[in-house]
Design a protein that fits this description.
It contains seven helices and no strands. It is mainly alpha-helical and about 180 residues long. It has two domains: about 70 residues; about 80 residues, Orthogonal Bundle (Arc Repressor Mutant, subunit A), CATH 1.10.10. InterPro entries: CdaR-like_regulators, Homeodomain-like_sf, PucR_C-HTH_dom, PucR_C-HTH_sf.
């Protein structure tokens, strides 16, 4: 279900897009609920300490069973990745991270970038997380900057890189994340 919209072409287009995204989220929830129910049925009665598979099922709440209604506003709580088309997010991630994943060094530049961003650009924090000296991390981040041709001091660039890293890591978005083992 979309948010209320006006009558203009732009408003209608926005409402239809919101409704489509909410429908996709509901279908994803229903598919997950179906897989969980099938798993519980396969495990048999009493599996996991719950008799008859009554673990929250059967009440018809939002996101449970078929026919659940998902409002577009509910999608915001699922994070930015929940609002993106999975194929587009994967393509974006692969394109942005390709120079790092193709780099033939023992240094894992993708993991270094992730640690740097998770540490909010604090060299000591990120270096400790990786188990390397801060100067090693500084060298790696200079290499990342060179390979990507992007300024890591720009908050918009950091946001795009974080989105690319999360899309690569999130199995709901990507069945096969880019190779970050190099």
């Amino acid at each position: 279900m979309s948010r209320p919209a006006g009558y203009g072409a732009t408003a209608l287009s926005t409402a239809l897009d919101q409704a489509r995204r909410a429908l996709e989220a509901a279908r994803s929830r229903d598919a997950a609920a179906g897989r969980d129910a099938a798993r519980r049925d396969a495990e048999g009665p009493g599996a996991g300490g719950v008799e008859g598979g009554a673990a929250g099922g059967g009440r018809g709440g939002a996101g449970q069973g078929s026919g659940s209604v998902v409002g577009f506003g509910e999608l915001a709580g699922q994070g930015l990745l929940g609002l993106l088309d999975p194929a587009a997010a994967q393509a974006f991630s692969a394109a942005v991270l390709a120079p790092l994943t193709a780099y033939g060094s023992r240094a894992d530049l993708v993991a270094s970038l992730r640690a740097y961003l998770e540490g909010n650009g604090h060299w000591e924090t990120a270096a400790q997380r990786l188990g390397v000296h801060r100067h090693t991390l500084r060298y790696r981040m200079r290499r990342v900057t060179e390979l990507l041709g992007r300024d890591l001091d720009d908050p918009g660039v950091r946001a795009e890189l974080w989105l690319a890293l999360e899309a690569a890591r999130n199995p709901a978005i990507s069945a096969s994340p880019p190779d970050s083992s190099r």
